[in-house]
Write a structure and sequence with these properties.
Blueprint lengths: L1 H37 L7 H16 L8 H16 L3 H15 L3 H21 L3 H13 L5 H16 L3 H15 L4 H20 L7 H17 L7 H17 L3 H18 L2 H17 L3 H14 L3 H13 L6 H15 L12 H7 L2 H22 L3 H22 L4 H24 L3 H29 L3 H23 L4 H24 L15 H8 L4 E8 L4 E6 L4 E5 L3 H15 L6 H18 L5 H5 L3 E5 L20 H4 L6 E4 L3 H9 L6 E7 L15 H8 L4 E5 L5 H7 L3 E12 L6 E4 L4 E3 H4 L8 E7 L5 E3 L3 E3 L1 H7 L4 E5 L5 H16 L4 H15 L7 H4 L2 E5 L11 H25 L1
Parallel strand pairs: 1-4, 4-5, 6-7, 6-8, 8-11, 11-14
Antiparallel strand pairs: 1-2, 2-3, 8-9, 9-10, 12-13, 14-15
Helix pairs in contact: 1-2, 1-3, 2-3, 3-4, 4-5, 5-6, 5-7, 6-7, 7-8, 7-9, 8-9, 8-23, 9-10, 9-11, 10-11, 11-12, 11-13, 12-13, 13-14, 13-15, 14-15, 15-16, 16-18, 18-19, 19-20, 20-21, 21-29, 22-23, 25-26, 34-35
Length: about 900
């Protein structure tokens, strides 16, 4: 019996072994058959490609379709490749996908084979115009972290795709990370990466209107120096070098280094002429024409443009030539120039023979030339306005307005499809001049409702993105610790990335950046898997209308005024229950200087008589310029005034303006007439109000007097302030070592009032605002996502409302971070606060809140009380005007702790106890 069992086992084992050997032989035979078919792969004509494909399909017909061997993956990949060669891309995609599904099972030992197939699929997607699917395949290649050429190229291609869709800074960050791997180790790959980096900078600055960062120019110069130094040691073709020169010249041109740019363009044009590379040569000619025109060499410029139009077959190049010719056309009226801008748009969108119409957003998007269309549309809108000023025909204003609305849609589209925060800022900067132009058009048409829309859009675009982030977090209740970690990692990565861009040869920095980038990516990948709808609520924000704002403030004894301005022009809209007044600000450049003069005066604790007289004079002039309507003082007197500032008016205390040329200075300040509050924008504030706070405690007060960082000076604690706050119910006070970052994180989410008395400032490297606790600073980015329930955040600190000025976005300050986290209002200081006067005003502010006043009225009364009590130099704005209220003005119910009642109750209990004790003792 045992022998039979043993015999059966041996037979089974032999059968299995025979089957395995047979299968292995079969698959090895399949590989040889594939190689035999592909061996003469030198065929380039369609007929031979078709023959090879037929042979591969015949071979497939003899295979087990469910087989998942590596050789079957090889066969599917070969079939996909030859379907592509015979222009059957849909079938090519199908078979390459089948190959990838199989090859994934063998990627541990054959990753390069898998990546080659993925690479082929990505290129077919590109050929078919399916850039999104191509990008997804490239991300798959990168996720496996291979060391093959396909992974390297996928990194570059992904960065270029991101840049081509307007997400410039994401692309640059990706390339900088790659550069840390090859810098100094592989000269060919290092230089190739540097050339792609300057290419992205070149494209970015080719389309820039205003956004110029000197640090970017320095980065470009360092890349150019390294490329020129090492190029002869590389194996790269000269075409790479001259493509880099062209891109570097674009950046020089953006920074008005015209001579350096023209010299490089001339080199590029000469090289490509010798190489008979028409497209590249024509591109250089376009750029040369633009620079010649800027220098007033119009004959040379015209020669360049005519060559472009006669030689180029590229519609972007021809459209650019038409646009530039119109812009620099000499001795011509604005109406004559219009034809060129219209022609540029028609050529770009493949409608050169049709009558011109403002293209729809869908037409622009379908063209895949959104960025180029934005440039031409802005030039067209500007010249529609110029034509109106020449002809006085309002039809041109109507055309300008329609064009500007299309530009607004296009800017929103580009931002919507750009996932990088800094790239969004880039698009806001590109839209700013357009929004001011739009308001000018509305002013000329006397259409305040449309003007209000453009003013709001100008202020709110990027701010709304942060509000949408907040709404997403609230809706899906992402755990607090995850949000804190996200922003902490993002900030650390951002700082390292900026440092590396400035010093790309620092090996230690390379390692730190690589490590941090990997850590951040892993974390965000997990967040995306666990919270797939996280991004969805960041979309589609609504800009509130003037009519709705009027309805909200009707019968509320409230008026408001909103501004938009730059260095040259400015406009405002004033609303009260009686009227809406749409006005132009005159002599804006002079006004800007006066406002800066007032800001300088306001930060000085002592002024002589001449300076005080000058302050009074200038502050009165500025008031009249900013409120240029009849009986302005009477219209805002005794009312609540909401101000939505812009540009230099940001972080300017209107309270310290002077409304009378004759009265005593302390009695002439605007604060004496009205309770003032500020908004970053109405649209943003309406979204903040959506969140209904429900704090369980009243006041959190944190005041570190000593700091771990030696550069931060000690602060004197206000015993009076602490005593005052202790008098309110449900108050928590942290001082000294207890005023720590961890206590802030753990406690800030449950209080109605958060009062921080500490240092604050701006990081010298990242220009990011920070606020300090006893042991550690907290950056603006760390504050994002730390949800709170605060009706009021009081930032009683040095420089708390100062931040990096970014045109179109406003001030990226700490106040903004708290608003993003759910705060309804922020009371913050505009300059280093005088501790004595600051404490007095804040104490009186609390007193007025306790009496039931609104926040804006409480602050007004606190400041008026200070001014009545203090005379001479102590009535200067430096001492009392620093604190400004932004956001909700709703009152806060404060209840004082009545110690008399507690004492009486204690005595009563004590007496009852004594009575009972004596009675019991007597009964004994």
């Amino acid at each position: 019996m045992a022998k039979n069992v043993m015999s059966l086992f041996v037979k089974c084992f032999c059968c299995i072994l025979l089957f395995t050997v047979s299968a292995a032989f079969s698959q090895e035979h399949l590989a040889l058959q594939i190689d035999a078919i592909l061996q003469p792969d030198k065929n380039v004509n369609q007929t031979n490609n078709g023959v090879v494909l037929e042979q591969l399909l015949e071979l497939l017909s003899h295979q087990e379709k469910r087989s998942v061997t590596a050789e079957m993956g090889q066969l599917y990949a070969a079939i996909g490749k030859y379907y592509y060669k015979t222009n059957s891309n849909n079938k090519a995609i199908l078979y390459l996908k089948k190959a990838i599904d199989i090859q994934k099972k063998y990627k541990k030992h054959s990753l390069e084979v898998l990546n080659k197939t993925r690479n082929n699929l990505a290129w077919i997607y590109s050929y078919e115009g399916l850039e999104k699917k191509r990008y997804e395949v490239l991300q798959e290649i990168l996720s496996d972290k291979g060391n093959d050429k396909y992974t390297f190229n996928a990194g570059i291609d992904s960065a270029v795709i991101e840049a081509n869709t307007g997400d410039f800074y994401s692309g640059l960050s990706r390339l900088n990370l790659l550069l840390t791997k090859f810098n100094g180790y592989d000269i060919d790959k290092e230089l190739q990466l540097r050339m792609v980096i300057v290419g992205i900078y070149g494209k970015m600055y080719e389309n820039a209107f205003l956004s110029k960062k000197s640090s970017d120019l320095e980065i470009i110069k360092k890349h150019q120096e390294r490329i020129e130094k090492e190029f002869e040691n590389s194996n790269l073709p000269y075409s790479f070098l001259y493509a880099a020169y062209n891109n570097i010249a674009n950046v020089y041109e953006a920074f008005d280094n015209d001579s350096e740019a023209l010299e490089l363009y001339q080199k590029v044009a000469l090289f490509y002429a010798k190489e008979e590379a028409l497209s590249e040569q024509v591109s250089a000619l376009n750029n040369m024409g633009y620079l010649y025109a800027k220098q007033g060499k119009h004959k040379e410029a015209t020669t360049c443009y005519k060559k472009v139009l006669s030689q180029s077959v590229d519609k972007v190049q021809k459209a650019t030539a038409y646009d530039n010719m119109g812009y620099f056309l000499q001795n011509s009226s604005a109406s004559e120039k219009l034809t060129y801008f219209q022609k540029a748009i028609q050529v770009l969108l493949d409608k050169p023979e049709s009558d011109f119409q403002i293209p729809s957003l869908q037409t622009i998007r379908d063209s895949n030339y959104e960025q180029e269309a934005l440039i031409f549309l802005v030039d067209l809108a500007f010249h529609y306005v110029a034509t109106f000023k020449e002809s006085k025909k309002t039809e041109y204003l109507d055309l300008a307005k329609a064009t500007l609305y299309r530009i607004d849609e296009l800017v929103s589209l580009l931002r919507y499809e750009s996932n990088s925060e800094q790239s969004k800022l880039f698009w806001i900067e590109k839209g700013v001049n357009t929004y001011l132009l739009a308001v000018e058009v509305c002013y000329l048409l006397n259409q305040p409702d449309d003007a209000f829309y453009f003013m709001e859009k100008n202020k709110a675009l990027l701010l709304q993105e942060n509000i949408k982030n907040l709404q997403a977090k609230l809706a899906f209740e992402i755990p607090k610790e995850l949000l804190e970690k996200e922003y902490k990692l993002h900030y650390e990565w951002m700082v390292l990335d900026k440092l590396f861009q400035q010093n790309t040869t620092d090996i230690s920095l390379q390692k730190q950046l690589t490590s941090k980038a990997n850590e951040f990516k892993l974390f965000m990948d997990k967040m995306q898997r666990n919270y797939p709808k996280y991004v969805q609520l960041k979309k589609e924000t609504e800009t509130i209308s003037l009519e709705k704002i009027k309805a909200l403030h009707n019968h509320s004894n409230t008026s408001f005024i909103t501004y938009i301005l730059n260095d040259k022009d400015g406009y405002g809209i004033f609303y009260s229950e009686q009227e809406t007044y749409f006005f132009k600000i005159n002599k804006v450049s002079n006004l800007q200087k006066k406002i800066q003069s007032l800001k300088d005066y306001q930060k000085q604790s002592l002024l002589n008589k001449a300076a005080i007289a000058d302050y009074r004079k200038v502050a009165f002039e500025v008031f009249n310029a900013l409120f240029p309507f009849k009986n302005a003082v009477e219209k805002i007197n005794t009312k609540n005034l909401i101000i939505v500032p812009d540009d230099t008016l940001l972080n300017f205390p209107f309270e310290a303006l002077v409304v009378s040329a004759n009265d005593k200075l302390s009695e002439s300040y605007l604060i004496q007439k009205t309770a003032i509050s500020y908004l970053q924008s109405f649209s943003v504030f309406e979204r903040i109000k959506v969140k209904k706070n429900s704090p369980s405690k009243k006041i959190l007060f944190m005041a570190p007097s000593q700091f771990k960082e030696a550069s931060l000076a000690p602060l004197q604690l206000s015993n009076e302030m602490i005593a005052k706050l202790k008098g309110y119910n449900s108050t928590t006070i942290y001082t000294e070592n207890n005023a720590s970052k961890i206590n802030f994180y753990n406690n800030s989410g449950t209080y109605e009032i958060i009062h921080l008395s500490t240092h604050a400032g701006v990081d010298s490297l990242s220009h990011t605002p920070w606020i300090s606790f006893q042991n550690e600073k907290v950056s603006l980015y760390e504050l994002y996502g730390i949800e709170n329930q605060a009706e009021l955040v009081l930032l009683d600190a040095c420089k708390t409302n100062e931040g990096l000025f970014a045109s179109g976005e406003g001030i990226m300050n700490l106040s903004r971070a708290f608003f993003n986290n759910g705060s309804q209002s922020v009371l913050a200081s505009l300059w280093n606060v005088n501790e004595k006067s600051g404490n007095e005003i804040i104490e009186n502010f609390y007193n007025e809140l306790a009496l039931g006043q609104s926040k804006s009225k409480a602050l007004q009364l606190a400041k008026i009380k200070y001014l009545k009590k203090h005379q001479s130099y102590e009535s200067l704005p430096y001492y009392w005007a620093s604190f400004t209220l932004t956001g909700s003005t709703n009152p806060i119910h404060l209840v004082t702790t009545n110690y008399v009642i507690y004492a009486c109750l204690f005595i009563a209990i004590l007496l009852v106890g004594l009575f009972i004790w004596f009675k019991k003792r007597k009964n004994r």
